[in-house]
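request received
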Amino acid sequence: MERTGDDPTTAAGRSEIGYRPLYRQVYDKLLKRLADAVWQPGQMLPSEGQLAVELGVSQGTVRKALDALTADSLLIRRQGRGTFVAEHDDQQSVFRFFKLRPDRAGAGMPTSRVITMTETSPNADERENLDLLRTAQVVRIERLRYLDGRLCIAETISVPAVLFPGFARMEIPNTLYSLYATRFGITIATANERLKAISLDARQAQLLETSTGTAALEIDRIAVDLEDRPVEWRLSICLTQLLHYNSLLR
Amino acid sequence: MERTGDDPTTAAGRSEIGYRPLYRQVYDKLLKRLADAVWQPGQMLPSEGQLAVELGVSQGTVRKALDALTADSLLIRRQGRGTFVAEHDDQQSVFRFFKLRPDRAGAGMPTSRVITMTETSPNADERENLDLLRTAQVVRIERLRYLDGRLCIAETISVPAVLFPGFARMEIPNTLYSLYATRFGITIATANERLKAISLDARQAQLLETSTGTAALEIDRIAVDLEDRPVEWRLSICLTQLLHYNSLLR
DNA sequence: TAGTGGTCTAGACCACCGA
DNA sequence: CGGTGGTCTAGACCACTAC
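response:
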């Protein structure tokens, strides 16, 4: 099943011509450095002027590339201080990919408890969603998550083992994506989520300490890195009696 | 919307506590014209150069304001042709606010059938979500929606009657938001959706021609206009056996 | 060919931050 | 204070569209 990243109406043909604006080339060069972890998360980049000299373009062109990277949440710019590689382990960034909120109060940080963690051969879903060969291995995590102390999510997380060496024997922190970035040099750029309403089967109900047939929200997420490779597949089952999934359309 | 924040400073030249960039003032001026429907949807704006002369700023400053309006989906710019007021009745814009997709195929246009349409006093939810006084009136629509010919949504739509004079006696098209724009001068800028999984009660099940207790997706949407006023509340009950709600996180 | 938006440059000045 | 990003300008040239 082909997964459409965006509206089906955006299938309009591209010019096909090999014209690439200068600022776009600068964007790609800087993106490559970020992907190669030349600059670490939190680190300050050279100033606009220095980059301009180094790359042999005007400061305005560098600026346009930096602004684009900032719009893509890869950089953070602060007037008077400098340009920094975005850190994905602060509170703000956690909620970038976590859209569940309590109905009434503001959300505290979600917490987690790992149930199982194994390195194994991928099943059919994992092969398809992570674009894997049959001979590849995956690391698969099952865990429960809590919001404001209340059990609300059971999820299965699968990643290609080759991209995460030693992952299966690690202590798993609450914020996975910062671990991906700091330990494996993998930055999650975007994630595509597909939501459905389901009735819990017996196993799911037991995990979530509720009764079979309860309505729950299923979130099927594929996360991709800076080079648009799928690097994580996550299937979350969420109880939404006291929570909701928040989506802002603009 | 990021650009219509709660900046307390006014457009008055230079105040010492708040600083308002020139391009931001231009943005606001142009936004006002869009809100006042000085330029109609689909219409071409004057060129950058003409606007620059008229407003007494440089072309680059106009450009920055136009780019910001384009980023907010209010304008569409086409190289070699001009800058146009975004039309919200073409296929692209429909899917901007409609995130349900068939699991397997690409989505055709959704269709609708109105069940009831009344003008009445608001209930407590409507008063709260639309920020209404007890004496106000609302227009309330119940309808069913179909995707690829299949019944999948039952929804209730409520709008303040004062903003939509004569609405209750109109023929209702499939794409409501284009009607809002063309007949009432109201442009939907953003919408906030809250999703939950629910079990259908008897009435909902009957409407959707399925059985009581079926799991379904409830979408609670508040849509706001260019001035950030809530102008529509919509509660949709969606069957997701063959559909999913698509959400792209970046 | 004329007119549009898109890119690129160079330089001036402003607002903000930290030492 | 010096250094950073943010704004603003003026002008040149490029790519695209319509006629």
